[in-house]
Amino acid sequence: MRVAVVGSGPSGVYAADALVSQDEIPVEVDIIDRLPVPFGLVRYGVAPDHLSIRSVRDTLNKVLAKPGVRFLGNVVVGQDVSTAELLAHYDAVVLTYGASRDRRLGIPGEDLDGSVAATDFVAWYCGHPDADRELFERLLPTATSAVVVGVGNVAVDVTRVLAKTVGELDHTDMPQHVLDTLAASSITDVHLLGRRGPAQATFTTKELKELGELIDADVIVHPDEIELDEPSAALAAEDRAVGRNVDVIRGWADRPNTGRGRRIHVRFLSRPVELLGDDRVRSVVVERTRLTPDGGVEGTGQMEEIAADLVVRSVGYRGTPLEGLPFDERRNVIPHVDGRVVDGDSPVRGMYVAGWIKRGPTGIIGTNKKDAVGTVESLLADARAGVLPAPASPEPIEDLLASRGVDVVTTSGWDAIDAAEQALGQQSGRERTTIHERDRMLEIAQG
Ligand SMILES: Cc1cc2nc3c(=O)[nH]c(=O)nc-3n(C[C@H](O)[C@H](O)[C@H](O)COP(=O)(O)OP(=O)(O)OC[C@H]3O[C@@H](n4cnc5c(N)ncnc54)[C@H](O)[C@@H]3O)c2cc1C
After folding, report:
1. How far is the CA of 319 from the centre of ligand 1 (A)?
2. pTM above the 0.90 mark?
3. Which of 52, 220, 312, 418 is the most core-located residue (most Cβ within 10 A)?
């Protein structure tokens, strides 16, 4: 059986691994990615200073080296090849193309210069080839105050990267131009805004705690924003993870301001209602909120203006449709039953889904493993039951892609890029430095 996996993030790689690790049905898997390099958000999302989490890619890389698995990078499904064409070349297709578009705030001023999506900022500091380098090279050295909207782990990552000294980042694989720009940043204040209280924030305690451990940043909280109402206090008492977060935040309230060069203002019960500015964002109008008995929030009408010449919106990720396939516009995922793609009540034979584009952007990297294994079980059951459509085309997919002038990066091409990144890193005493230019990656891949 031949299977195409669309997307080489963790869910795609875990799906490929599950397919080749069983011996009942011999399977060959092609993992196709729009980028010349694999691993999706493990490479272009997970914070570069979280070295142990990023090392998951060593585990994923071992799967690419397994017999029966091929990487086909630099191939955009939906552009270079359609999903219908993939189904004509393979017995089955597993869609694992993620959900990495940003959600919007939906408030006036959101599109002012200086207001950016966390997706774009994260892509830039991770060295994504599509990142807008000029934008951040212009914004960071000319900004003094940043507002980060959102209280999930991504917002905490963004806040930490903005508040760290470059000395705390130069051991990572960030491209040199990113380190240079962060070194030239004139940001002294980062305001992290959450519309609900400390008991409702969705960060993990380990990530939160790190904010209080930076070399040159004080953390400031407003005591009146961290008082817990009765339901929040009950939640903190019941749920240990919530209780730990609340303890960390209360600990900050008791700490003196030590006069360090940067300040992280962790704000709760505060929601942005408008961004103000002229040629660039200059401030954020923030409304104080209160929690409602049904677990929501409502505005109090009490307004405050926070000066900000950089605003990073981190209010969630969403998936996008792929031509010719059903899509749930409300949940921004591909509809499925047990990983089998469905269009209304009918199965789309041979088409499967796993990872963020199946579940939405939730869970940790490991969550995608169980998810991908579940989808592969459905696929193998269908193969055993003989309900997979037979591939119509005997032509290898490489021939089709070559006829369209697509420069495919194979596993050996990726290995060459991998080796070049390690060699580049060693020149500056680092384990690796990310190569960010697509052309350079393609040149290296072609030897
Ligand atoms: C900023 C950020 C930080 C995170 N940090 C952590 C962390 O510290 N710890 C943790 O456990 N989890 C973290 N996560 C979550 C984790 O990254 C996700 O759970 C995981 O990456 C989702 O895997 P996926 O394979 O479904 O999608 P992705 O990782 O997004 O992979 C999708 C792949 O599909 C490819 N693709 C997209 N469209 C196409 C197309 N048309 N054709 C071909 N290929 C395509 C993409 O290039 C990508 O390689 C973080 C997420 C983000 C956004």
Report:
1. 11
2. yes
3. 312
